[in-house]
Every structure is written in structure tokens, then in C-alpha cells.
Amino acid sequence: MADTIKSGERTFPRMLLQHAQIRPDKPAFREKDLGIWQTWNWAQVADEVRALACGLAAMGFRRGMSLAIIGDNRPRLYWSMAAAQCLGGVAVPLYQDAPAADMAYVLNDAEIDFAVVEDQEQVDKLFEIKQGLDRISHIIYDDPRGMRHYHQKELAAFDKVQELGRDFDKSHPDFFLSELNAGRSDDTAVMLYTSGTTGKPKGVCQTHDSFIAAAEGGVGFDRLTANDDILSYLPMAWVGDHLFSFAQALLAGFTVNCPESGDTVMTDMREIGPTYYFAPPRVFENMLTTVMIRMEDASAIKRKMFHHYMDVARRVGSDILDGKPVGFVDRMRYALGSVFVYGPLKNVLGLSRVRVAYTAGAAIGPDLFRFYRSIGVNLKQLYGSTETCAYVCLQPDGHIKFDSVGLPAPGVEVKLADNGEVLVKSAAMLKEYYKRPDATAEVIDSDGYFHTGDAGIFDEEGHLKIIDRAADVGKMNSGEMFAPNYIENKLKFFPFIKEAVAFGNQRDMVCAFINIDMEAVGNWAERRGIPYSGYTDLAGKRETYELIAECVEKVNADLSTESMMSGTQIHRFLVLHKELDPDDDELTRTRKVRRRFIAEKYKVLIDALYAGKTSQYIETQVKFEDGRQGMVAADLRIVDVKTFGELKKAA
Asked: Is 452:385 a contact under the CB 8 Å cutoff?
């Protein structure tokens, strides 16, 4: 078969067939189903993709068409991406937890005729959408459970499509390779939609070439090989997952492991023991919250041992990981800590075998970053966006800075505009926004630089520091720079704070909304015999406010040591009566704060914070999981917290 694959053009389907030839028996995908891990090698995956591609072709899928993919991370959904690309089509993954109305916008904008979905839930959403969107003509489902009584003409089971494809392949033996060989490097391979923090999401068209360039840079940078393992559990519609679990996997040939469900990720991680791991800051925050909750329930001896050795880790752990000189006594203390604390802790978190771990998608608090590196997890930040294939800056081993996102990645040019905006030029850049030449022209200038919309600065060693979104960075009335995301990340380091929104632009002081972490604060309350009936009740407790006030004051003390940020300490805060939720349009699907929307929706609360009030009544409309709408009302307390004069940070 080797001589029938046309060389020259680099595409993902060609890479797939090459792995099937070079390492046919090497595990390519694993999936845990009903408690048992199923494995497919590269030869089997190539056969599965070929059968599906031919089945799609027999059903009318043609070059240039788009295939929607909706569901949790499943091998068959990744194979559907490759199958569409084999035929010259475009894969369009959607966020599986999005409500039908949000999906309808993307399905309509991307002009979708064919969709491959995971299960009955997604099928039901698409039929709900079809009432106002007649375009979808074929819906292929993976999981047959619950589908026995569905007989709509648009429906087809994944297995049946593959059967149709194998028959089609027999009667058209030259078709598959002919279509695959017609593919070009500059064809659009995938369309990923932006999170839509400032408006309707836009379809970002990325070519085979752009994602292959990003994958090559990352694989070479971190020396990834076919022997690595990754756990794929983040939304397939997110650019980070597409880079790590699809592009890099097809380039390096490592194994992609799909967990049984979102609820079993931690258990499945411990079983697989990935060597390569990727998660947004929120996941690392949740892991740390879990650890702290467990430590609260531990015996006094265990708590004392944990805190003692964590002090050692904070002092020397990162230096040991980076290969820097550390005294013999401290090395011995750290070695004991590895036996008693760090090793067992990494095992519980499923990080024992991790050689490289990355976080991206939002800024990670330096304290959170320091925690993982101090216990020996080689956690690094990368910086990128959907438009740059998540590939702009990387942190080299041994040269990690907690407050930077690293150096420009291999093959990437980064510079700052006069207003501090980060500009990027590389081969790993969007081809265009789908059907939006106006938007494309706005973000790519005449010199070929992509305008990221982020504000940053370079330090003396060339490391890039991202301050905030350029549109979000403002000024206080005192002239101080106000970077809300920077403050919010410091707040979210505490396990009791799940989300935070800071206000201060063109104001005399900074105030904040806080969302408590229900699990962490609930556990804390139960241990102290504090009764509560639910989130709203717990959020309004006097004891909860006192707990959060301690966290806020610690953040203020930290900010007071930073000359650029000392004037942005938080003066007043309130604990919101409901959790900020993507279904209520307060967060994006990647859990980024929609600031303008929140500022409008909760204007009465912001006014109360700045008017000096001690409480404010509010009624808020919410959407429930079953689609119903309701109201949540509460009389929210507003409290003042201690601030500090500017202090010099200890060396």
C-alpha cells in the first residue's frame, strides 16, 4: 500500500495510513467501556476509518462538505474526524454539553448536512433543532442504547454505516485511496468555533498544514514519542484537545486513552497512568481542592506531616525538578517527603507517570503552578488560541517562570504592538474565519501578524507575561493598571473559591463577586456543624463570609507586595446566590467569564458594592438542566475587607 499513497502533500489521513504500515500492532486508541479497557491498534484504526469514510461517501458525503461531531471523547468520534478528512471534508466538533439552541447556531453557520453523535441525548438535541433547521439530512449515532424505537429516516447506526462502507469499498476498490490522495496540505481540516466571549462564536478554519506545524513544534520541543500515553477527556471542540489528542497523536503515534465518563476520569487516570497530560487551570484547581478536602478529614498526625513536607516542597521542590543546586540536607528532606507525601499524592491524582503536563486556556495562578511543580509534576504553561492552533509560547524544561507563559515556540514570531497587544506570526495560524472575511481582515494585519487580543509584556530574558485580555485591561481612577483576570486567578487558588469576577475599571477601588466551591465549603461547614439547605443558603451564611474574607485578605496581602498591582487590592465583596453557569450565558463553554454580560445582568449588585450598601436584594432567572426556567432570589450581604499599604516583596 505504501506506493499507492501519494507523497508530497501532508494530511492527517496520510499520517494515519503511515502509522498503520510502520507500527500496525501498536495501541492507537483505548476506551473504557463497562469497566473494561478496549484497545485498537493502528492497523485496526485505519480499517475502521476507511470503512466509515466509504460509508459516508455511499450516503452522499462529498469533498468540501462539513461533518458535525458531538459527544464525549470517544475513539469513534476521533475516527469520524479522520474519515471526513479522507474524503476532503471538514470536521466540525461541537461542545457536547451545549444546549440545543447554541448548537443550532453552529450547525446552521457551518452548513452541516451530516452529523456523527455519541448517544441518544445528542440525537434528541438534533431532532429538537431540526424543527427549525431542515438542513441536517443524516445523523449517525455511536451508542445504540435507548435507540431501539427511533425510526426516523435521517438516523443510521455507526456500525451500519461501516457495513455499508465495506460493501461500497469492495465495489469501488480504488475510491478510498483516490479520494485520500486528492487531499492537499492547505485544505481546511477542521473548523473550531471560538468561545464567543464578546459576541457570536466564529468558525476558525484550520488547515492540515497549520495543525501539523503546531504538532511538529510541540512533539519536538517535548521529545514526545510513540511510547507516550495521553488521557483524552476535555471537550473535542476545544483547540487544546484537537492539538494534543488528534494532531500530535497522529504525528507522533502515541496512544489516546478515552475515559468511561466524566465522573470516572480520576479513576481511569490512575489505571492508565498517562505520561503526557493536558488540563485547563480549572481541572488543576479542582484536583487541589480535592486534596485539601481530604486533608481536612485526615488525622492530626497526617495533617501535620502533610503541611511539614509541603513546606519543604515549596522551598526546594521546583529547584530540584529544574535541576538547580539544592543543599544535601534539603535533598534528603525532599526525598523523605517523596516517600511519605508527594509520591502517594501524585498516585492519588493519577500523575505518577506524567513526564510532561501542560495547562492552558486561561492564566494559572502562580501559587497553583508552584504547588504542582513543588511535588515533582513537570507542569508547564503553553500559550495559544483557537486561531493559532494553541501554539504560540512554550516553557522549556529547566527554565520555568511561574509568572510567564514561556518563550516563543519554535517557528513562531511574537511581538508587541504599541498598546501592548500580543501579535503572532507562524505556520500554525488560521486560514480564515468561515464566511467572515471582514472578521479575518480585522485580526490579520498587512504584515501577516495575528492580533491575539491579549495584553502582554516581555521580561529581560524574553519570556512573555500575559497580563489579561487587552479589552479587559483598564485603569482605575488613581491611574493604576487594572487587570481583573490576574486578581481573579489569585482568588481562585483557594479551594473554597470556585469563580470570581473583579470590578475596578474607572473606579476608585476594586470590588468582587465570589462563587463558593460547593463541595469544599460544604465539607468545611459540615465539619463545623453548620447546617445549610443548599447553595444559596450556604453562600449567605455569616461563617461562609468570614471564611471567604480570610481568603480575600490573603490575596490583598499578596497584591500589596507587587508594585504594579498594590493599588488593585479588593475593598469589598459579596458571595453570589447562584453559581455562574454557561447555560445562563454567564460563562463560555470553556468557563471564561463573560464580563460585559455579567456587568449588565448584575448591575444592581455592582451599584450596591460601590454605593457603600451592606446588603442588596436580587432576583435572578436561571435555566435548569431539564430546560425549565425559574427564579432564584436572595438578600445578599456585602462586606468590607482589610487592605494593606504597598510592601516590598521578600527576596
From this structure: yes
| Interval 145-190: pLDDT, tens | 999 999 999 999 999 999 999 999 999 999 999 999 999 999 999 9
- How many Å apart are CA 246 and CA 212, to the nearest integer? 10
Reported CATH class of domain 474-640: alpha beta
* CA 570 to chain centroid: 28
Q: Where in the chain is the domain with CATH 3.30.300.30?
A: 474-640
* Cell numbers representing residue 437 in the block: 472575511
* β-pair type (188-193, 203-207): antiparallel
CB within 8 Å of 164: residues ≥ 6 apart:
54, 55, 58, 59
Tell me the whole-structure pTM to 2 decimals: 0.80
Cα separation of 443 and 437, whole Å? 10
The neighbouring-strand residues paired with 617 are 635
Residue with cell 505556520: 427
CA distance readout (Å), 83 to 6, 47, 438: 18, 11, 31
Domain 2-278: give its CATH superfamily. Answer: ANL, N-terminal domain (3.40.50.12780)
* Residue 124, C-beta contacts closer than 8 angstroms, at least 6 positions apart: none
Rounded to whole angstroms, the Cα distance separating 157 from 151 reads: 11
d(CA 631, CA 514): 20
Name every residue whose Cβ is closer than 8 Å to that of residue 30 and which is 6 or more positions away in sequence: 37, 38, 39, 40, 75, 255, 256, 257, 258, 272
Instruction: Render pLDDT for 568-613 as a digit per residue (tens, 0 to 9).
Output: 999 999 999 999 998 888 988 777 888 889 999 999 999 999 999 9
Total count of residues recorded for the chain: 651
